[in-house]
């Protein structure tokens, strides 16, 4: 027994419904991406506030540590201006290392909606598979 040949009207209807479903799916994924970006941004904002507070507290502690280090180097017989320069260079090198590490953690890639992008790719593959069937 042979199957009836699909009518052009049925094919158009099927393609139309596939496109409608794909658009709805895309809209849903876009809303999910917006929500995920918002969550990531608020998490990053909270982390940034804590980072600023920690930096201020650390500044006071590091100032006292720097004074103690300068006095310690001066106690070794190094003139006070040279002791201050040596300690300042050491602290600046440490600060540069921390700044580079912090920059790598606050990158655009870490804020991207990875779960949503993965889901969209999966949905695109599913739509392609449906279109082939």
Topology of this protein?
Layout: H1 8-75, H2 80-105, H3 108-111, H4 114-132
What does this protein look like?
This protein has 133 residues and is mainly alpha-helical. The protein has one domain. It is built from four helices and no strands. The protein has helices spanning 8-75, 80-105, 108-111, 114-132. The longest helix has 68 residues, at 8-75.
β-strand percent reads under 5%
Order of helices and strands: HHHH
Can you tell me the overall shape? rod-shaped
Largest sheet: none
Low-confidence regions: none
In helices, the fraction of residues equals: over 70%
Quickly count the domains. 1
Mean pLDDT: 83
Structural class designation: mainly alpha
Count of DSSP-assigned helices = 4
Rg, Å, rounded: 30 Å
Tell me the distance between the termini: 21 Å
Write down how many β-strands occur, each being a DSSP E stretch of 2 or more residues: 0
């Amino acid at each position: 027994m042979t199957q009836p040949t699909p009518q052009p009207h049925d094919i158009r209807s099927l393609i139309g419904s596939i496109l409608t479903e794909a658009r709805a799916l895309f809209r849903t994924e876009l809303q999910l991406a917006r929500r995920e970006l918002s969550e990531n941004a608020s998490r990053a904002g909270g982390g940034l506030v804590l980072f600023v507070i920690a930096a201020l507290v650390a500044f006071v502690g590091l100032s006292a540590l720097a004074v103690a280090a300068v006095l310690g180097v001066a106690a070794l017989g190094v003139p006070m201006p040279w002791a201050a320069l040596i300690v300042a260079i050491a602290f600046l090198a440490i600060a540069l290392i921390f700044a580079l590490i912090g920059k790598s953690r606050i990158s655009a890639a870490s804020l991207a909606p990875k779960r949503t992008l993965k889901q969209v790719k999966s949905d695109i593959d599913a739509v392609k598979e449906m279109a082939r069937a």
